[in-house]
Design brief:
2 strands, mainly alpha, two-stranded antiparallel ribbon
């Protein structure tokens, strides 16, 4: 059985009647970016990065965020990564 809905202010709002109380659910995101996350999970880290280099990159990112350096939107990052790894763009774009 598939029951669909949308998260609104952190609460799942079902498209139809909700399942009965006590029903166990498994939630699977149905948005287009979920495929990107699946692809990214299969990309190994660069072989030249050591653990210390990885931590330093994270520290720099956090410092930039705290300093107000603007970042990129998820859509921009997704487009860039798809181009870099030779993945097809999203349908209809």
């Amino acid at each position: 059985m598939i029951i669909e809905g949308t998260v609104v202010n952190g609460v799942l709002v079902f498209d139809g009647p909700p399942p009965p109380d006590g029903a166990r659910l498994r939630v699977e995101l149905a948005d287009a970016d979920s495929d990107l996350w699946d692809e990214l999970a299969r990309v190994p880290p660069p072989p030249t990065d050591t653990y210390e280099e990885h931590l330093e990159a994270l520290r720099r990112s956090i410092a930039e965020m705290k300093a107000g350096v603007p970042g990129r939107s998820l859509a921009e990052l997704a487009t860039e990564l798809k181009k870099e790894f030779g993945l097809p763009p999203e349908a209809g774009k």
